[in-house]
Amino acid sequence: MPINIPRELPAGEILKQEKIFVMDEDRANTQDIRPLNILILNLMPEKEKTELQLLRLLGNTPLQVNITFLRMATHQSRNVSEYHLDNFYTTFETVKQSRYDGMIITGAPIEHLEFEEVNYWGEMQEILEWTKENVTSVLHICWGAQAALYHHYGIDKFALPKKSFGIFKHSLSDPKEELVRGFDEEFLAPHSRHTNVSAEDIKKHPELSLLSLSEEDAPFIIMSKDKKHIMITGHLEYDATTLADEYNRDIKKGAKIDIPKNYFPNDDPNAQPPNTWRSHTHLLFSNWLNYYVYQQTPFVWK
């Protein structure tokens, strides 16, 4: 089944070329079906790239999904046009009287800041509180995961001595959990972050389950025991070339950065990196939509 997106969203044409079933709003309104309503709070600087990455995954399930993109009203984005934001995004003030079956909160390049130093942290807290009663399940990614752990469970992040950057092996603690159904017991995933959270703090918390650790013993997939909040500390949604783009960007800035681990063939930055995590990414998103959103959300919100 398709994802329902605004008619002129630039990602739409690329998705159609990739043979992902996309339906515009006019056709969707004629469908006699209860679609899932998914809210995406996109905090990434290159918003159009993130839109495409997430829509590609949400469009690969048998469920019809309506998408709403959310921006922060208290922050001015510098890497996307006002036209794009005005036409395809809304603000929390507009949606806070609505209820959503699922929500995705992306990462953001602000790890160096304490949460209270982020200029939109107050608005972020309001949104996180609102999700408790108005969203069936929330998928938090990277900084979004750290923000959720801090706000909901009091678990703070800490700085790493060196950026965790590359493709890392991960293991599962409970392969029977529905979120990771179909996963290999060892799998690969991208990371790109300067901070981490404590595995011990998560294991000790009575409301949290740690489903996956990286080879560096860093938490990767964390879930609340009520299955409402899912925190992914890495970037399964990344394209094959995203880490290369980040590496080249930082090199041009003159930043001191290592080549991403286990990424470029023979550690050659001129070589094309393979996508070695795609199948598990699709599994996670389809499992989330099926088991934690579709099978849990009420047919009619009251």
From TrEMBL:
The active site is at residues 142, 235, 237. GO terms for molecular function: homoserine O-acetyltransferase activity; homoserine O-succinyltransferase activity. It is an enzyme of class 2 (transferase). Pfam families: HTS. It is found in: Cytoplasm. Its EC number is 2.3.1.31. The record marks 192 as: Important for substrate specificity. Pathway: Amino-acid biosynthesis; L-methionine biosynthesis via de novo pathway; O-acetyl-L-homoserine from L-homoserine: step 1/1. Substrate binds at residues 163, 192, 249. Its main location: cytoplasm. GO terms for biological process: L-methionine biosynthetic process from homoserine via O-succinyl-L-homoserine and cystathionine. The record marks 111 as: Important for acyl-CoA specificity. Keywords: Acyltransferase, Amino-acid biosynthesis, Cytoplasm, Methionine biosynthesis, Transferase. It catalyses: L-homoserine + acetyl-CoA = O-acetyl-L-homoserine + CoA. One of its GO terms (cellular component) is cytoplasm. Transfers an acetyl group from acetyl-CoA to L-homoserine, forming acetyl-L-homoserine. Belongs to the MetA family. This is Homoserine O-acetyltransferase. It comes from Virgibacillus indicus. The gene is metAA.
